[in-house]
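Example 9 (inverse folding). The structure is encoded as follows.
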């Protein structure tokens, strides 16, 4: 068998046939291989590789598979980068970061909760004092979707039922003029998750294709037990305007859903997921299903 000058005949101790095989050595030779040269071996178990720093790797059991796995991972990453560059050069609308994210780069990074809610009694209050939501059931849907998401991800352990809030609404005079802290105190809550409706659009007819339907709320966390200092009543966020959260539907989504009821239901579901993620740790991958 004709071999390059930088190769020697070597074999692995576990080989069973007696035919010599020329196999490359790293430049300068390698004394660790000499003990294999007098052993019988099976040439069909090995391949031929040019000399270099990893020339001996296939002659060592398991190492060839390890190096092959490394080369595969490096190759896949290289292909991803090449694809990103090629896509950007063709004029696609994705930014470099967005494209890499879509290909899975960085999706395992943890996004920490913006605020940790109490593990005592929590009152979730969906407040639409200006009656912007023109599908009344949507407010109840948002309450149900949000509380279920918080419980499912263990962001809270005790939530005051919606029926208790509705009973207080019917029995308490001037319910709409009462503050969230006062209402929470009446229901023996530790905190109030105040969800104030700022904007709502959920018609079947639309003019904007990217924002055909939307629901925007301001989210605040209220400390029910604080009675002395008004500045300490709002626990989160620091801004008095609250944390704005919006759920959007495209024209394609609205056309698929067709009715106001279905549109309101989808908006509620998406908005609830976005609000809940403020209060528990998650990964960007968790947000892929709801946009």
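The amino acid assigned to each position is listed next.
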């Amino acid at each position: 068998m004709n071999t390059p000058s930088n190769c020697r005949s070597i074999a692995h101790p576990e080989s069973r046939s007696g035919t010599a095989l020329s196999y490359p050595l790293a430049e300068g030779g390698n004394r660790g291989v000499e003990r294999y040269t007098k052993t019988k071996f099976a040439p069909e178990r090995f391949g031929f590789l040019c000399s270099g720093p990893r020339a001996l790797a296939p002659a060592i059991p398991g190492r060839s598979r390890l190096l092959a796995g490394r080369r595969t991972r490096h190759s896949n990453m290289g292909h991803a980068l090449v694809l990103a560059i090629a896509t950007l050069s063709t004029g696609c609308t994705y930014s470099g970061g967005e494209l890499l994210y879509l290909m899975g780069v960085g999706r395992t990074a943890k996004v920490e909760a913006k605020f940790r809610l109490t593990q005592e009694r929590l009152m979730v209050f969906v407040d639409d004092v200006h009656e912007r939501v023109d599908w009344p059931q949507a407010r109840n849907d948002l309450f149900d979707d949000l509380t279920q998401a918080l419980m499912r991800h263990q962001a809270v352990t005790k939530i005051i039922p919606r029926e208790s809030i509705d009973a207080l609404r019917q029995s308490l005079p001037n319910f709409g003029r009462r503050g969230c802290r006062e209402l929470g105190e009446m229901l023996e809550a530790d905190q109030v998750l105040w969800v104030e409706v700022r904007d709502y659009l959920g018609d079947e007819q639309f003019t904007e294709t990217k924002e055909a339907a939307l629901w925007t709320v301001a989210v605040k966390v209220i400390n029910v037990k604080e009675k002395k200092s008004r500045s300490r009543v709002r626990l989160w966020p620091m801004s008095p305007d609250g944390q704005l959260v919006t759920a959007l539907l495209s024209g394609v989504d609205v056309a698929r859903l067709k009715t106001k009821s279905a549109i309101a239901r989808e908006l509620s579901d998406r908005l609830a997921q976005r609000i809940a993620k403020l209060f528990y740790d998650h990964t960007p991958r968790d947000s892929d299903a709801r946009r």
